[in-house]
Amino acid sequence: MKTSIIAVGTELLFGQTVNTNASYLSENLNLMGFDVMYHFVVGDNPNRLREKLADAFKDTDLVLLTGGLGPTQDDLTKEIVAEYMGADLYRDEKVVEDLKAFFEKRGGHMADNNLKQAYLPVGCTPLYNASGTAPGFALEKNGKIAICFPGPPRELKWLFENGGRQYLEQFMEKKMYYRVIRTIGIGESDLETLLMPLIDGQTDPTIATYAKEGECTLRVASQRDTLEEARSATEDMIARIDDLAGKYIYSYDDEELDEVVVRLLREKHLTITAAESCTGGMFASAITNVAGASDILKASFVTYSIEAKHKLVGVPYEIIDSYGVVSPETAEAMAAGAMSSFGADIGISVTGFAGPDADPGHNAGEAYIGYAYKDRSGYVPVNTSRNIRNWNRNYFKLRMLRTVYQILKGEL
Amino acid sequence: MKTSIIAVGTELLFGQTVNTNASYLSENLNLMGFDVMYHFVVGDNPNRLREKLADAFKDTDLVLLTGGLGPTQDDLTKEIVAEYMGADLYRDEKVVEDLKAFFEKRGGHMADNNLKQAYLPVGCTPLYNASGTAPGFALEKNGKIAICFPGPPRELKWLFENGGRQYLEQFMEKKMYYRVIRTIGIGESDLETLLMPLIDGQTDPTIATYAKEGECTLRVASQRDTLEEARSATEDMIARIDDLAGKYIYSYDDEELDEVVVRLLREKHLTITAAESCTGGMFASAITNVAGASDILKASFVTYSIEAKHKLVGVPYEIIDSYGVVSPETAEAMAAGAMSSFGADIGISVTGFAGPDADPGHNAGEAYIGYAYKDRSGYVPVNTSRNIRNWNRNYFKLRMLRTVYQILKGEL
Fold it and tell me: Across chain A, what does the average pLDDT equal?
């Protein structure tokens, strides 16, 4: 079904807000088999919205709108859509009750203008909103469908997942199943080349790759007559991907690498301590961003200077003098020292040049990840060939996480 | 001048790419006094682009287009715009030379299809692109103006700043000057209330507030007949803002708080060491993200557990037992220990509940920032009243940075 998305809000035209709602809806609609042909952005202006709504319905049968459903005078999306579709408004008593409960729970008084949100077009399918005050709705007339969602991205997402998606499923000819696979350690074009035998000429399941800073994500999606067929086709394809690229995969369920690492460490009852040079705390920060990290990370070190590498994690000055501060030997000594200094099960370290500067004979982007676990220790060399400080730091952190992942999987 | 922005690219309609180009252009165009009325997104499809170009020119006189200028068959923006404006294409020899130089520099062979990029509409103002291979251009006919930019955000920004902006200045009736002020420690609505005497009824300079996670940014902009007048009006207004809200301002030049703190520490030749509990290394990571941080941060500690607080930065167990691990006393002892354990000039610490859990009698969002500097020490209580782990952690980090800023300014 041909589809347009109209975002309503002057803040978008001022450039204060980026239209992430259109991307979010587009991604989901495409996955469901809808053909998104246009995005429009229009300010809080009734005439211009009326005009763009007509433009959108001229070429497409399904129009999703975001924004302009709130309680203020500016909020006109519902009124314009109802008028365009020739529907009156009625007062929806469930919304009135929801609004009262919402304000009571917060111990506040409900200003009268909030009741504006309780009016919906006659004949619509209400999309009740438990994540905010403004409900959405879907309205169909003569084969044309308008669906209105609130503008705040959190509310839009909630309402799409809890009403919007279910409403749209009736227009899907097939059932859809998909999974998102996360990889690290291989670039997007290399991954595509590796999977070319599966991607080439493949119509269902589809395999889409997305590059993200230092990582690459794969989405495997199938649309079939039944959900079971779609699921089975997806799982078969994932098994074939696993055969070709399994060693780069760290999640089959769209988890972040830090979440996977924390989960595995907790499952194995292992603790970890890091000694970070150029990442300056990013590894420890990533680990502790996951709730429950206190079980596995008790302490960690930022050893930015040579003195700190010696004093805090006991790297002998002779190693630094002999091999250099950015070297496999220093990285290994840092990891071993991080492990023993606090009695952790695993020690992990990084020493490198994030940029813009590097010592003579080295380049920005060169780093060594050191690790120590029980009687094993070693290092992983990294060289991004880039001189972008933030990018390198983030990539080094990801490689530290991946190194821990590989230890936990018995690959190192 | 009424303006539309058309982004061309199927990846936008798939939701793989967010249309940040439209926000970037909108923000800049609004600041220059152009009235952005619509955004459109259309795929790499000649008929649909032709139609939306006509729609845009129906209501607006200036249309900026992004994307579709590359060397492939898909890239059709230039051809459609030239056709719509009734212009033929000519081969621009400067672009040919630029392309040859571009590929020579990279030691690669130039595929023939790259020459497609050297053709531009007759009568256009070329926008030569030193940041990539595809040039942009501006084309005016009968009072209608189309300006085409490449799609990659980095190239778009470069070309807007190095050609696009200068071309557009001829249509500005006035000269514009603006500055961006950064504040922390006050919410957006409180800041607006504080500045209401200046904002209310003010037409030039304008004051716009933007909330960002835990921070608030102010943009003061003036448009006058001469640049000097605009500059002077802006500076006068900034002085008045300073009188009312000076204590919340940390940058008058749109700098990040971590950059300001690193700059001030380097200017004063001071070193700093942190002891971080719930932020888990975010403070050290923010400081070391700024190039040159090695002068001021030698080492730092992530003291996540009670044991780490004792062993690494010497917090007496009696303090933790008497006052609790999340308390002003523990925060101060952590800061003093961080300072003395590595001989830094300043010690900074945080202990708190990021969420989702908190000890009985406490709530997520409660934290204490400790500091120690020479013979001074103290703490700053923080309570966000939110239970959003990532938000709290980031806010605690900002408050640590602000505390250091206040020490350096003699306010603590």
Answer: 94
Q: What rounded mean pLDDT belongs to chain B?
A: 94
**A96 vs A122, A155, A220, CA distance in Å?**
16, 18, 42
Task: Locate A200 and state its tokens.
Answer: 């080439």
pLDDT cut 70: percent of chain A above it: 100
**DSSP conformation class of A409:** T
Confidence of residue A73 (pLDDT cuts 50, 70, 90): confident
Which candidate in B289, B297, B315 is best for mutational testing of the A interface (most A CBs within 10 A)?
B289
Residue type, A285: S
Q: Which residue of B has its CA nearest to A17?
A: B23
Is it the case that residue A310 has pLDDT exceeding 90?
A: yes
Report the candidate in A185, A194, A219 with the shortest Cα–Cα distance to residue A30: A219
**Cα(B112)–Cα(B135) distance, integer angstroms:** 16
Task: Determine, for residues A281 and B278 on separate chains, whether the beta-carbon distance falls below 8 Å.
Answer: no
Q: Are A221 and A176 in contact (CB under 8 A)?
A: yes
Between CA B223 and CA B226, with CA B224 as vertex, the angle to 5 degrees is 125
Check CB contact under 8 Å for B298 and A291.
Answer: no
Give, in order, the Cα–Cα distances in Å from B115 to each of B101, B109, B111, B124, B128: 13, 12, 8, 18, 14
Beta bridge partners of B373: B346, B376
Tell me phi and psi for residue A320, to 5 degrees.
-65, -40
Do A375 and A320 meet the contact criterion of CB atoms below 8 Å apart? no
Compute chain A's Rg from CA coordinates. 27
A 255-294 near B (Cβ less than 8 A): 276, 278-285, 287-289, 291, 293-294
Element (H, E) at A400: helix A389-408
Find tokens 């509940």 and name the residue.
B353
Sorted by where each starts, the structural domains of chain B and their CATH numbers stand as 2-169 (3.40.980.10), 175-251 (3.30.70.2860), 258-408 (3.90.950.20)
CA A409 to chain CA centroid, Å, is 24
Strand partners, A177: A222
Spatial strand order in the sheet of B366-373: A376-383, A366-373, A346-352, A272-276, A299-303, B299-303, B272-276, B346-352, B366-373, B376-383
- Cα separation, A143 vs B196, in Å, equals 50
Residues 173-232 (B) with a CB less than 8 A from some CB of A: 210
CA nearest to B12 within chain A: A23
CA distances B241 to B138, B190, B233, B246, B316, Å, are 39, 14, 12, 7, 45
Chain B residues whose beta carbon lies within 8 Å of the beta carbon of residue A19: 18-19, 22-23, 39
CA dihedral B333, B339, B345, B349 (to 10 degrees): -60
Provide the ipTM. Answer: 0.82
Between CA A79 and CA A33 the distance in angstroms is 29
Contact yes or no for A38 and B42 at CB 8 A: yes
pLDDT at A210: 81
